[in-house]
Amino acid sequence: MGTSKDFKKAFFWMKKSAQKGEPHAQYYLGLMYEKGEGVLTDPKKAFYWFEKSAEQGYAEAQYNLATMYYYGHGTQQDLKKAFYWYEKSAEQGEANAQLILGTMYFEGSGTFKDFKKAFYWSKKSAEQSYPNAQLIIAYMYYYGQGTSVDKKQAAYWMKKAYNNGVKKAKDAWNELELWKYE
Question: Which of 103, 107, 108 is nearest to 86 (CA)?
Fold first, then answer.
């Protein structure tokens, strides 16, 4: 804003701020290394800066750090560490982290299986209008996974998922005959 776009200059100034310990700058520097904006792509340096920011409590950095651990990008894959950082991010309200944390509890990935906690975290994400979480919550209500069977709630969340662009929700609406519970 107010000047021409220059990723190299942005990188220069972002790095100066990040080196002084500013968590937002550390996070954005991690993004720049991850995307190759103003610098060559370097997953290890992206990981380093996300970790610096995450350790200071920055939720988006915690999410990105968790994702790097989850996929082994810029570091060794470690599902327990991924779980740890997704949980930190989810506790601060990050909807993506909440959904992934719910999925990890559901699958027992990086933690033990716990359908109640899977439901809890997925619903937190769904309540923030995250469409894929709305779809998952609809299924969980329908099948009673982590919660009691509640077809009215299943219909409510399935319709929300569809209205928020999840095409699979329309097929599920018809297949599960959820119109009966509207």
Answer: 103
